[in-house]
Every structure is written in structure tokens, then in C-alpha cells.
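Operator note (shift B, R.M.): manual run for YHS domain-containing protein requested after the automated queue skipped it. Running by hand, logging everything below so the morning shift can see what happened. Input copied straight from the record, untouched. If output looks odd, do not overwrite the archive copy; leave it for review.
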Amino acid sequence: MKNRLLFCCLFALLSAIHSGSAQPKPPVVKPVKIAILLFPGVELLDFAGPLEVFNHMEGASVFTVASQIGPMKMMQNMLTVTPDYTLNTVPQPDILVVPGGRMEDVMADTAVVNWIRRTTAGRQLTMSVCTGTYLLGQAGLLDGKTVTTHWAATDMLRQMMPKTTVKEHTRFVDAGSLVTTAGVSAGIDGALHVVARLRGQQAAQQIARLMEYDKWEPEAGLVIGKPAKRPLTRSKLAVSQKVTSSRRKPVETPASQIDPVCHMAVDKITTADTAYYAGKYYGFCSKLCKQHFKREPAAYIKAN
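Run finished. Output pasted below as returned.
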């Protein structure tokens, strides 16, 4: 009787051990280091949107990096942010996020461009938001790729990168190791897509719900709404007149409140960012756009 009772107890114990060992183990989450590039004049939501998304991703370590140490002005000097690392101290990231903003200075910063190019081999994925594609193009990462950018910057990107296919009317483009997004809020969609790739669709949906980003349609890559038409008017101007930089205060009503090169809205016209052509003043969002305009003014005017 005792032997029988002992056998039953031993059998129950072995069954419990076997049952416990047969249970599936939770999947191991691979840690991911995500670096977000900052620079003077960076657009706030371009970097803050992806930062918010990735901050909620399991196993993600998110940090910011810039070419210089100390507080940095951004978003038309409305906000000051201190980056976590410089280019010399930042850990090798698995994912690099390059936002857009005021691009001419950072595109001319060879230290930033070389760092982006140098760290490409060690990265799992590179993601750009808005005109951050300009910087990736400057680093030579877009040749032969299909990308997108802010709807108002697609034409200029095509001119800058003739070997790149630029798609319009899409929130993001997944080209494998490169994910590019349209403007500003589209960085959230692109980041959610990256989460879905790395952690699954359910994880991305949970983050979208947590952020109350409830209009996200993963399959379409869209938030509710339709692509907006460009707020442009067509002008027929003489093509042979000389372009001159403005040396005096521009007229109160310029030819257009839209940059004729990148088609972005020009909030404030200053003498540093205007050019005179065919009897009218034109305003630009950056010196880079102004330089492009001065090379072929007639072509840009006709395109508008």
C-alpha cells in the first residue's frame, strides 16, 4: 500500500515537472538601439513623433545625437533641446532616424554627412522623415532607391537625386534597410511601421492606441484624409530676364507666399531669403532653394 502511494506521488510530481517544461517560453526580445539625429532648425514633430513611438517599443533604447554638445535651438528657435550624444560619443545605433527641417546648414556639415555614411554598414535600418531625405541623398544613400518625402519637396528631391525614384501620395515607403516617410506627422506612421516589422502588428497597434493615433491604417500607410493639392497658381513670365538678389526691403505682397522651388509656405520674407525676377519678388524657405532658383528661374516659374 505504501509503495503504491509512493508511486502515485512520484508519478504526479514527474507529470507536473513535464507539464511545466512543455509550456512555450516567451520569445526573447532583441534589444535595439535607436539614434535620432538633431540639428539646428530641425522640425519638432519630425523627430518627436518617431521618438514617442519608439519610446514605447519593447526592448528599444532611444537617444538623440548631434554634431555638437550643449543646448540646440530648433523649430525656428522656438525650442531648445540638449542632445544625449555627439557624433564622437554616440553608441553604434541599430536604427538611425533622420528628420527634416532647415536643411542647408546640416547638409553642408561634412562631419554629419560622413558620420551618416560611415555608420551605414553597422545599421539594421535607416529612416528619414520629411526633407531628411535630402541629407540621406547628400550622404549617397538614395541612388537606385524608391523613396518619399514631404509632398512639397518631391520635385526638388528628383532634381537633386536623378537616380532615385520619388513616390508621391504615400505616407511612407519601405525599401528594406531604408524607410522614408512623407512630411511631419507621417514620421509617426513610418515609426509604427518599423515597430510592426520588428515586434509585430499587434505591438504597433497597441502603441497607436496608447498614443490615441486612432486613424492609422497600417495597410494603406495613411491617416484619414486625402492627398492635398498643392496651393499653387500658374504664372507665365518672361524667361530671359536676369535674376538679382534683393538688396532692399521687398514689396509688401510678393509674387507668392509659396517657395517656387520646394513649394513650402514662406511665413516671413526677409532680404536674405528673396530674389527679384521679372518684376516680382520671390521668397524662399532656405538659401539652398534660393540658389536652385537663381540657376534656372524660368523653369521654376513655368513649373508653378
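Quick read of the result: Confidence is low (pLDDT under 50) at residues 224-253. Residues 172 and 190 are 6 Å apart (CA to CA).
Leaving this for review. - R.M.
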